[in-house]
Specification:
The protein is of the alpha+beta class. Helix content is 30%, strand content 21%. The two termini are 35 Å apart.
Length: 363
């Protein structure tokens, strides 16, 4: 059975109206034919698996043809946001799901920033991509409708340059009325360690999702235009302040995440001997990479959509505008560990620069 037959069978079974007040639609996007079908995740699936990753798995299970290869255009790439994404403070994340071209097993990865919330506020919970576009394509979502735009002018652009070009060409401001997922040159060239970038730093990374998106000839999915609040969630909006206060009152948020971000975890990992060092030949490393030593280069803190924690450290190594990688987002704890002890680097400046380079290259 072809992917189109599988989609047609599935859509015929799906409800055509929301099953609860804040539910968004699932879009099935045929990239080759530029056709779009819609449905809603059944309530039984939501109750059993929630949305986000759970519903992504439901759609992958129904649409997967195991006789094919992961990069075949009939293998779908699925984006999904959670039930509370965009509604509750700190619920800003979404998943990208497919069959991994890197491992040959399950591909499922998670990221935050603004895209998962912005698609929900456009009335969309899940986007199922399949079929290979005839030419490189940028999908633009405005007020819940999808446009197919020519992405040829953006080929060869990595993350920094692409994020500069899009507002200039199409208008808008990041995080106010623009959010995007995109591939870099790595995804265009099907590199198996390529990510789908979801912001300056946020990325769907595990399993080679950039290669999968590139194989479908999709350069980016852009959400553009004013987002909307969920009118049906207004009676519960007062509780969000309480939720935010409880988050901010926790010790780990107040004294670590909000001030240093996840790199605060480096010191306890180092002291416990739980740190992969020199390709996991050793278990601890220098205190030169403790979070306090990143502080001189931390230019501020940022966060995902409507998250009060703001645990994302920004960095600035210098004020030279010609130094493309002299500033950026991060590093997070795992990046600090992999570019520090795991490869035997003990200079925090080198780790930060490697972080900025990989965020741009989409690796």
């Amino acid at each position: 059975m072809s992917i189109r037959d599988r989609v047609a069978t599935l859509v015929a079974e799906l409800p055509q109206e929301p099953q609860y007040p804040t539910q968004g639609a699932t879009l099935f996007v045929d990239l080759e034919r530029r056709d779009i079908a819609r449905g809603y995740t059944p309530m039984r699936v939501v109750k059993a698996l929630l949305a986000g990753r759970g519903a992504n798995m439901f759609y992958l299970h129904r649409l997967l043809d195991e006789s094919l290869e992961p990069l075949h255009p009939d293998i779908p790439l699925i984006f999904g946001s959670g039930v509370l994404t965009g509604i509750v403070p700190s619920a800003a994340r979404g998943n990208a799901t497919s069959w991994s071209p890197e491992s040959g097993v399950l591909m499922d990865c998670n990221a935050g920033d603004y895209f998962p919330s912005f698609i929900r506020m456009n009335g969309i919970d899940h986007i199922v991509l399949y079929g290979r576009a005839a030419a490189w394509t940028l999908l633009r979502i405005r007020q819940g409708d999808v446009e197919f735009l020519d992405a040829t002018p953006y080929l060869g652009l990595d993350n920094i340059d692409l994020r500069e070009r899009i507002p200039s060409d199409l208008g808008g401001t990041w995080n106010r009325d623009l959010a995007m997922v995109n591939v870099t040159r790595a995804g265009e060239n099907l590199v198996l360690t390529s990510a789908i970038m979801g912001g300056p730093k946020a990325c769907y990374a595990r399993g080679g999702p950039g290669a999968k998106m590139g194989s479908l000839k999709v350069k980016a999915i852009l959400v553009q235009g004013q987002t909307r609040d969920f009118e049906t969630a207004q009676p519960y909006k007062g509780y969000n302040r309480t939720i935010a206060q409880k988050l901010l009152e926790t010790s780990v948020v107040k004294h670590a995440l909000k001030t240093m971000g996840t790199p605060f975890l480096y010191r306890p990992s180092r002291m416990l001997g739980a740190m992969g060092t020199k390709n996991n030949q050793e278990t601890t490393w220098t205190d030169k990479l403790d979070a306090e030593n990143i502080t001189p280069y931390r230019s501020g803190m940022a966060g995902c959509f409507r998250c009060p924690v703001n645990c994302r450290p920004l960095n600035e190594l210098n004020q030279d505008p010609a130094d493309k990688y002299g500033r950026g987002d991060g590093p997070e704890y795992v990046t600090l560990g992999k570019f520090g002890p795991n490869v035997g680097i003990d200079r925090v400046e080198s780790v930060i620069r490697l972080n900025n380079i990989c965020n741009d290259l989409g690796l």
